[in-house]
Amino acid sequence: MGFWPVVKKVVNESDVVLEIMDARMPKISRNDEVEDLIKLHKKILIKVYTKIDLVSKDYLNFLKAKEKDSVFVSGVRNIGMRKLKEKILISSKRAGIAEPMIGIVGYPNVGKSAIINALAKRARAKVSNKAGTTRGIQWVNAGSLRILDSPGVVPWSDDEIMLGILGAKNPERLRDPESVALEIIKMFLDYGKENLEKFYKMKIGEGSDKYDILLEIGRARGFLLKGNRVDEHRTIFQVIRDWRDGKLRL
Ligand SMILES: Nc1nc2c(ncn2[C@@H]2O[C@H](COP(=O)(O)OP(=O)(O)OP(=O)(O)O)[C@@H](O)[C@H]2O)c(=O)[nH]1
Ligand SMILES: [Mg+2]
Predict the structure, then answer these.
(1) pTM for this model (two decimals)
(2) Is 53 in the pocket of ligand 1 (CB under 6 A)?
């Protein structure tokens, strides 16, 4: 199913819709059009930032101050679930709904199923680092809550770099993985050079550009081909996977 059919079905069938976003990439993981659709259908919208275990305390506080009505959680670390549940129940009660149906939307691999499992206190939904793990739309019982797990859906399927960074498209399916890896490196150049240096145990030289850094990472990892040339292909995929899996942190 395409993006809008899934989103429309989820929104139609639920009373409360959780919009799941990646706390590491708040700007690119939200979707205004989805929010508008939820409001248009007069459903309750709860914005949820997940994977907060992957960001620094300072950054989290900054995001919390900016996004006051959002909930901050980690599905796999089971953080913030009580608050999320409370918010769901309080806002439903206010709308006169005793047993709310809960829908979940968000791009692939953002951590939707992990949140459902944390709410359910058991593994009800399949979780993996492959984008597109959940197939079809299915209701899951999570304690007293009924939640509709849905496949991750992408509205901006033409922006490959964005999808790559979001982990919404599996690395081996990217047409231009190099650009994705370089864009990830650029984020670190802009916001957290030291973390990149620390993680790959290398030093970023004065005036190095993102491509120089990619080669430096390959060298630091010992990804070398004959003649001591850096295996760029291998390095590119390493960077994308380290970022996707939350090992490499801003
Ligand atoms: N560190 C961290 N990793 C998480 C968190 N939530 C999910 N993940 C990881 O992110 C990946 C995707 O999680 P899923 O819950 O399967 O994501 P999804 O949104 O249901 O994905 P699709 O069904 O493919 O759309 C898995 O590798 C999870 O282990 C979290 O809060 N923190
Ligand atoms: Mg899923």
Answers:
(1) 0.85
(2) yes
